[in-house]
Amino acid sequence: MPSLALPKVWSGLFNLVFPDSCRICDNPLTSVARYPVCRKCLEGAAPIEADYFCAACRTPFHTPHPLDERGLCGLCRGGMNGFDSASSYGFHEGTLRKLIHLYKYAGIHTLAKPLAGYLLAALQRRERLDLIVPVPMHWRRKWSRGFNQSELLAREVSRRTGVPVALVLRRARKTPPQAGLSDHDRRRNVRGAFRSTRKLDGQHVLLVDDVMTTGATVSACGAALKRSGAARVTVLTLARTDRRSFPSGPGALAKSNAAGGW
User: Fold this and answer.
1) How far is 200 from 158, CA to CA, in rounded Å?
2) What is the pLDDT along the chain (262 residues), one digit of tens a residue?
3) Which residues contact 45 (CB under 8 A, 6 or more apart)?
């Protein structure tokens, strides 16, 4: 009898350590991996598709009307100019949003490796890069979470491209969460919140983050890098908020966040 019970014990222990269903679709996992997500979900995030994009921040639009003669959107015309270009793989929704949520909030930092594949798919390979810089976290928030999700992503991109990572950005002060703030308040919240710890004379910096909402945070980071002499700052994120159907005007983003956005 004990010998018959042994396989059940081992099976129970195995399922405790290695979950038996995908945390995204709940289908059974057919192989052991370092993350509880099936291959279909890992590869199932859809890329951004749109007819019109801002020439700077790459915000997608249904029509060209929000863009001026230079191809810039309202946010970029309004002063969000800390970076030169930005690329994101997909919209912050569906499978990609769930993967990011598992990565950041469920502590499954091993997802950095497959998620970095999405970053590389969005990266403009023709650009020569000198440094990869992750968006920093305040030390208290990093201590609470246990890791900086942007730094792990940056290191994976570095490993595959050969471009070195440099932790040159620091948060000069802790800022309240951006969720629930209007476009204007987001920019004001992070203005002057970052500083660079070394000179970057003439270098092209790839700034890596997980999600881009309005671009206020990466714009503030980019401005700090440029104050230290960076010649060009390119932003690369996994996802961005789809703002094509948002109402315009002050407070529009805050209303969207209050309705359930991140």
Assistant:
1) 18
2) 445 455 444 444 445 555 578 999 999 888 777 889 999 999 999 999 888 888 878 888 888 888 999 888 887 787 667 898 889 999 999 999 999 999 999 989 999 999 999 999 998 777 789 999 999 987 777 888 888 999 999 999 999 999 999 999 988 766 655 555 455 555 555 666 788 999 999 999 999 999 998 788 898 899 999 999 999 999 999 999 887 765 444 344 443 333 333 2
3) 89, 90, 94, 95, 96, 99, 118
Sign of CA dihedral 116, 119, 124, 128: negative
Enclosing H/E stretch for 234: strand 232-240
145 φ/ψ angles, rounded to the nearest 5 degrees = -80, -30
Residues in a beta bridge with 182:
none
DSSP character string of 84-109: SEEEEEEESSHHHHHHHHHHHHS--G
Strands 194-196 and 204-212, sheet pairing: unpaired
Contact 103, 37 (CB under 8 A): no
Return d(Cα 182, Cα 253) in angstroms, integer.
5
* pTM, rounded to two decimals: 0.80
* Helices 149-161, 112-122: crossing angle, 10 deg rounding: 60
- What is the token pair recorded at 135? 């968006």
- Give me the helix-helix angle, 94-105 and 112-122, nearest 10°: 130
Q: What is the rounded CA–CA span in Å between residue 161 and residue 38? A: 26
List own/partner pairs for 77-80 with CB under 8 A and 24 or more apart.
78/183, 79/187, 80/187, 80/214, 80/215, 80/216, 80/219
Do residues 253 and 187 touch, judged by C-beta distance below 8 A?
no
